[in-house]
């Protein structure tokens, strides 16, 4: 289970009749990927619904693909925010808002008599802009330390990965945490990264001008991914 600050949480459970129910509660502005758990074999039709309205569909042979704009012209709640993985049918909601809170239903049709269904309950919390900026935008002077705190408690089975300008720099798994070496990050952060193994907080010590940029945390489980971005400015 993840426990987010300000009352955020992420957890999953099995529902009745073999239907899984996954609950994800995140901050506005995060990106969330809901996984289907399948690799298409050109036979399935995968449909996503939001509060019983179809918002995305993909066939295994890619002959029929639509997202919110094409599926429901004139009622596009998610305009430009939905992405479908063509290999798995997994659905990504980018820059989520509290108006996107609700029940997402996944239906996979393999044949007329063979189908499965999962339900994801997603809540996007509206955090005051001042608090969100304080958390996600950091400005420090050179040689000072800065801490990026996602306000979570890590589950042993989940993976938390930090990226700097799309370069993988840190990963925490169920095993002891490992920090990428200069092979992965060109030695930019050598001996200057510290991790809190419980919360995933990342501290950069002895900061440099070249540490300025976008840091992204990817919180990954078998059912979903949550991505949260932080901006750091070193002057």
Give the structure's gist in a few sentences:
It contains three helices and 20 strands. Helices cover 7% and strands 47% of the residues.
Give a description of the structure:
There is one protein chain. The chain has helices at 68-71, 129-136, 182-185, and strands at 2-4, 8-14, 20-27, 31-34, 45-50, 53-59, 65-66, 82-84, 91-93, 102-111, 114-125, 137-140, 146-148, 159-164, 167-172, 178-179, 193-195, 202-204, 213-220, 224-234. Mean pLDDT is 81; it is low at 1-18. The chain starts with a strand and ends with a strand. With 235 residues, it is mainly beta. The longest helix has 8 residues, at 129-136.
Mean pLDDT: 81
| SS strand fraction | over 45%
H-E order = EEEEEEEHEEEEHEEEEEHEEEE
Q: Using the alpha-carbon principal axes, give the shape.
A: elongated
The number of helical elements comes to: 3
- What structural category do the secondary elements indicate? mainly beta
Distance between the termini: 37 Å
Q: What's the number of extended β-strand segments?
A: 20
What proportion of the residues is helical, as a percent range?
under 10%
Q: Which spans of ≥5 residues are poorly predicted at pLDDT below 50? A: 1-18
Specify the biggest β-sheet: 9 strands, mixed
* Radius of gyration from CA coordinates: 19 Å
């Amino acid at each position: 289970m993840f426990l987010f600050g300000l009352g955020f949480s992420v957890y999953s459970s099995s529902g009745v009749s073999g239907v899984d129910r996954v609950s994800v509660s995140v901050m506005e502005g995060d990106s969330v990927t809901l996984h289907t758990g399948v690799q298409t074999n050109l036979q399935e039709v995968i449909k996503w619904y939001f509060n019983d309205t179809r918002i995305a569909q993909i066939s295994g042979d890619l002959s029929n693909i639509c997202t919110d704009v094409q599926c429901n012209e004139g009622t596009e709640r998610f305009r430009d925010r939905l992405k479908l993985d063509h290999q798995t049918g997994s659905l990504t909601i980018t820059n989520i808002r509290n108006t996107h809170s609700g029940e997402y239903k996944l239906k996979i049709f393999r044949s007329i008599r063979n189908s499965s269904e999962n339900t994801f309950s997603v809540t996007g919390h509206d955090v005051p802009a001042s608090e969100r900026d304080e958390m996600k935008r950091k400005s420090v002077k050179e040689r000072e330390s800065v801490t990026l705190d996602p306000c979570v408690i890590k589950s042993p089975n989940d993976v938390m990965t930090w990226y700097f300008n799309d370069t993988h720099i840190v990963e925490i798994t169920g095993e002891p945490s490992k920090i990428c070496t200069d092979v992965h990050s060109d030695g930019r952060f050598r001996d200057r990264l510290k991790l809190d193994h419980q919360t995933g907080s990342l501290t950069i010590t002895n900061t440099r001008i070249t540490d300025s940029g976008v840091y992204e945390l990817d919180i990954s489980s078998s059912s979903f991914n949550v991505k949260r971005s932080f901006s750091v400015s070193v002057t």
